[in-house]
Amino acid sequence: MEFGGGSYGLIDLVELSLVASATSTFIPCYNGTSTVTISASGGFPPYSGTGTFTVNAGNYDYLVVDDMGDSTIVTVDIPNANAPDSVIATNASPSFVKATQ
What is the pLDDT of residues 40-80, one digit of tens each? Predict the structure, then answer.
């Protein structure tokens, strides 16, 4: 409360934007799994929806929410490793060569 003269109060409103990010590991083998880590910064901690998850290949959306209810979605695309090579079958009979000395 002020009773005249200059003002001695100041309010500075600063927007703290919630930012979420994801990292994932490479899937080296077909039908393997990846480790996805979701982290957040800004906004008002603590956050929900963050952590480390083990997933198969595919597309995933992770919802991260801060303590004030602000939210953001992180989309992660985990590619699968290439399928194993096909087996080649032939009708040819194997031939053996006798080693001579």
Answer: 999 999 999 999 999 999 999 999 999 999 999 999 999 98
Tokens standing for residue 66 = 């801060």
- Helices of type H across 5-86: none
- CA 18 to CA 72: how far, in whole Å? 7
d(CA 11, CA 2): 15
Reference 76, options 59, 51, 57; nearest CA is 59
Going 69 to 73 to 12 to 46, the CA torsion angle's sign is: positive
- Using CB atoms within 10 Å of the CB of residue 38, give its burial: 0 to 12 exposed, 13 to 18 middle, 19+ buried: buried
Name the residue with tokens 């997933």: 55
Q: Which two tokens stand for residue 9?
A: 């109060």
Task: Give the pTM.
Answer: 0.68
